[in-house]
Batch of 2 targets.
Target 1
Amino acid sequence: NIFSSGPAREHIEDVEEALIEADIDLEIISGILEAIKRDKISDYEGVKKLLKDIFSDSLNQPSVAPQALKKVIILCGINGAGKTTTAAKLSGIYAKNGGKVIFAAADTFRAAAIEQLEAWAKASGTRIIKGIDGGDPAAVVFDAVKNAKNGGCDMLIIDTAGRLHTKSNLMLELGKIKKVVLKDYPEDEIDTLLVIDANTGKNAFSQAKEFNESIKLTGVILTKFDSSAKGGSIIRIAHELRLPIKYMTYGEDAGAISVFDPQEFVDKLFD
Amino acid sequence: NVSGKLYDVMRKIRGTGVISEKNIDDALKDIRMSLLEADVSYKVVKSFIESVKQRSIGEDVLKSVSPGQQFTKMVQDELASFLGDKNSGLDTGRRPMLYMLIGLQGSGKTTTAAKLANYLIKEKNTPRVMLVGADTYRPAAKQQLEKLAAAVGAEFYTEEHDDPVKIAVNAYKSLETKAIDAVIFDTAGRLHVDAELLEELKKMKAAIPFTEILLVADAMLGQESVNVAKNFNDAVAITGIILTKMDGDARGGAALSMKHTAGVPIKFMGTGEKTDRLEPFYPERIASRILG
Ligand SMILES: Nc1nc2c(ncn2[C@@H]2O[C@H](COP(=O)(O)OP(=O)(O)OP(=O)(O)O)[C@@H](O)[C@H]2O)c(=O)[nH]1
Ligand SMILES: Nc1nc2c(ncn2[C@@H]2O[C@H](COP(=O)(O)OP(=O)(O)OP(=O)(O)O)[C@@H](O)[C@H]2O)c(=O)[nH]1
Ligand SMILES: [Mg+2]
Ligand SMILES: [Mg+2]
């Protein structure tokens, strides 16, 4: 490990390298290095403990036990991040606790997006509300919300189309979707979660910032954590935007999801 | 035509009159920060900065009449050479051309397969293109490619079972009785650390004489891009890279990391979700974007 031998300055360089390679924001890293020098931390466990302390304020989040789940989850994020697959995983968690889930297939744009969510719905026996290819996503959400309110379902999971945060018309479309939900559900019953791929670099922060401004986020889901990527970009997101990281996913099957574990996250930084 | 960061660096050096080695070191620190901010991998940044430093000693920038300008030009040249200084097109060797697209989950392979088909049909006088749906894992992956194929006017081939190598081999065999100019094989996304799925790619390569094996990679990849390029390249010797989602605002430093690691050209960039959004890759454009 990085502290097994050699002079202190080399250790600092090795720690810096590990943190940079973890995609952590550079300003946050220089703060960490200052703390290491100031506190004269000279071993591996000391650095990990320091990181846990520094990050715990931003990474330790209120419990997301199933009973804490909201009535509506809106999944948003850039193209290919893992939204549709995560929708399936979330429904699995909720159904396991006896809840009734409805999917809203609000990606009406991408080829076979509806079919993809339909396949997951079929596999788990989940009800799905969909519209026509190329139709208005807000209309699908309107339909889904009506069904959710009248049909005794405990949770509505809305899968939206991937979109780059730089496309203002698409960000407006997302805002419109949330407005439809707000007609029938109070804000505190809606979880608006940004799905972020752990392999993403610094751009993840821009994504979070822009999505947050367009459609007030309530949290982040970190996907593809089974990659060797450390997902360090979420630290700045949690710290600067005060957004909790609610879940992490680590595989392509329906069960590969767990509540975000800060300890596991920090441990991985130095793998 | 100097990018923002380099211009600042140049102004700083110029402003000091006589230039010292410390000026160069400070300039290099600035550039290092900028490259790391741009998601260029740590080790690639180190290697790049070292090359620039060696060049500045070798070209004796300190004694130059206009050291700021000379230093800036040197950085730009070095960056261009790291990125590949000429646009390198698709290998359209002998027909039928056989292209396989590989890469991480969600990087844009299926969409890019259709874009490549569209490009060949519309711009490369290659009217008969076949798209092969060899992703047997992702729900509705075959349907996705089938719809895209119809949209761009390409033929679609798949089979209703889950052995991707068998599908690819049968698609290839079917060419004996079909008039096809190019075949593009779409594969399932896979992690560069998934040994079993990398093995599957090796089987694909052993079974089919691909003209090109292209790594499709997201422009917003972070530090992991070096390992992504290395692992895929070690497994199947990629012949080129396609960078997707360049219509976003990611600085794209992963391009530098991957090109440097795999030593193969970046051939195209995806610049949107529609099937006509594929452009040849131009190093100068991404160089200034990376430098910021
Ligand atoms: N290894 C791994 N792959 C994942 C994970 N989550 C999703 N994927 C894969 O990532 C790819 C993209 O997932 P999707 O669910 O289609 O992503 P999306 O955000 O809905 O994509 P768009 O709707 O096109 O924007 C698929 O191949 C998934 O199987 C994960 O946690 N680990
Ligand atoms: N904005 C933008 N979106 C893109 C681009 N290329 C692909 N996409 C989108 O990225 C998402 C993922 O694309 P796919 O083609 O499904 O990716 P994939 O690599 O085949 O995914 P898997 O098969 O699950 O590994 C889709 O929403 C595409 O529309 C691009 O250049 N720009
Ligand atoms: Mg989706
Ligand atoms: Mg695909």
Target 2
Amino acid sequence: MKIKKLEILGFKSFAEKTSFTFPPGVTAIVGPNGCGKSNIVDAIKWVLGEQGAKTLRGRAMEDVIFNGSEKRKPTGMAEVTLTFSNENGAAPRQYSEFSEISVRRRLYRSGDSEYYINNSPCRLKDITELFLDTGIGSKAYSIIGQNHINWLINSKPEERRFVLEEVA
Amino acid sequence: MKIKKLEILGFKSFAEKTSFTFPPGVTAIVGPNGCGKSNIVDAIKWVLGEQGAKTLRGRAMEDVIFNGSEKRKPTGMAEVTLTFSNENGAAPRQYSEFSEISVRRRLYRSGDSEYYINNSPCRLKDITELFLDTGIGSKAYSIIGQNHINWLINSKPEERRFVLEEVA
Amino acid sequence: SRVRFLKAFEEVNDKFQEIYTKFFDGGKAGLKMLEEDNPLDTGIDIVAQPKGKRLQSITLLSGGEKALTVLSLIFSLFLVKPSPFFLLDEADAPLDDANTLRFVKLVKVLSEKSQFLLMTHNKNTMELADTLYGITMQEPGVSSLLSVNLNEV
Amino acid sequence: SRVRFLKAFEEVNDKFQEIYTKFFDGGKAGLKMLEEDNPLDTGIDIVAQPKGKRLQSITLLSGGEKALTVLSLIFSLFLVKPSPFFLLDEADAPLDDANTLRFVKLVKVLSEKSQFLLMTHNKNTMELADTLYGITMQEPGVSSLLSVNLNEV
Ligand SMILES: Nc1ncnc2c1ncn2[C@@H]1O[C@H](COP(=O)(O)OP(=O)(O)OP(=O)(O)O)[C@@H](O)[C@H]1O
Ligand SMILES: Nc1ncnc2c1ncn2[C@@H]1O[C@H](COP(=O)(O)OP(=O)(O)OP(=O)(O)O)[C@@H](O)[C@H]1O
Ligand SMILES: [Mg+2]
Ligand SMILES: [Mg+2]
């Protein structure tokens, strides 16, 4: 499964709907301090099921919903959608006939949260199962947050097993 | 008290005696990854009394003694000397007639450690008292280690009182 | 000592706001006592609001915004009680070019009253320095000082 | 599952050594099981020895050496079990110019099998990229995507 598209709406500083397509090869994301680069990393971790508000630099999960700016009021919902291409049919059996698979997560100010796979509602568990054994996930070895490069060195020996088990 | 000179011998990667003078203004210390820049910060923290091996990135204090290289054997002692000019007589009374004040710290592989002020043996307590109220010290707000810039933001509110008390 | 603490708190708070708005071209910053009626034990909160943004928890700030907030606070402590030297080990690493230049300009001003030792890989910072020391491991595993003349850079 | 773990351990260990010596032009790196007779529960130690230096605890390594050690390990995991994408947020920040170039060269090679998304302020890294996305807050407090054509940089 390759990432094709990311759509962010109302998540952190992305008040308006913003879409990214991911061409093959290397994509550099640049911009001044505080412009929203790391918020994109948080959006990807979040849609893949991240449950810890602190891992997303917030105090409560509600902190991921656009909280307003000088000229705008806070919004009531955060939504992130990540679309993968499934050409080689790596997805689990029930999704194998789809050429594209999209996962979506929503959070409302009320605290209600919703998950979707290909636009049909599902549970978080379904999303975690979808990505089992694909190397995709909010804790995957291939996602390294800002200032987090040394986590493998600073962690305890038992915590490091986790990455080896992922590839085993 | 202004820093005049730093002399390092057998401390971490500084096997040979190395002296630095500090001209006024801004001094940039540059060099490739792993060449020894942060070891200089550790040397300054250590001579000012730092007691935590972990703060100096080691497991035991012995890790600060030059541990050998491809061509050299480990040495038996680490020594750092920091010399200040005392033109404005900011040092405590018993040192006020000295125009220069130097502090030295030594550690032997045996575990013995020695402290000196102006070449005469003293205790760690004497060094801490010497710098009381001067703004100099291993935990001073003006020493920020690598990747440590956010410590004031990540620390608990009670821990932050410490820096305000320092300036009060 | 209660009076001295309150005085220091006020002074640092004022300077913090002043330096922060210089760095961010606006915005607000300050210190908050969690228990105002108990100045000798209270914890201290740091409040920072970059220009044009709503006030939020400082944990939501970006890497560069956090670094500049801490630098503003450290420099405001200095203005209340000067320290003879600053030792900053790659404090400019999270900053973009514009903020690195703001940082070095402020350091240049403060360096009239205090010595600054900056470990850095950033060319903008190197260009500002009065003196440049190169550290090398010409002999593998052994550090030595390469005296660098600024004109050679 | 014990057999699978041991096989993955061996493969990652081999690749880790291979990639590490590519980064550091030499040196040694490896993984160690703390309890060899209990592969299903044992903790894992990381061992890294830059070229020309004695073997020491990894905590004594420099900021840049630690970053390169972790990147070597992550890339060796990838070679054993590829992940469809990498998301690295300013992983190049602690690296000097020489190591940044080594890092980007390796990324370029691996990007034939996987997509790389790199957040960066480093010009060397930007030059390597196939695509550049600029994020801006033209409206203060609101992020938007500035579509940047590489030729314009
Ligand atoms: N819920 C939210 N609503 C609005 N803005 C938010 C929200 N959460 C975070 N932000 C804002 O997003 C900004 C941080 O963005 P981000 O961390 O992505 O910056 P960055 O581009 O990574 O910068 P740097 O280069 O400094 O790392 C902060 O200024 C913060 O106030
Ligand atoms: N006791 C010791 N004996 C010999 N070498 C040591 C000792 N302690 C640390 N070192 C070596 O010093 C090196 C680290 O140096 P330092 O952290 O100062 O690098 P640096 O110049 O700050 O690099 P960077 O730019 O990556 O931060 C390591 O390679 C480490 O092995
Ligand atoms: Mg960031
Ligand atoms: Mg360093």
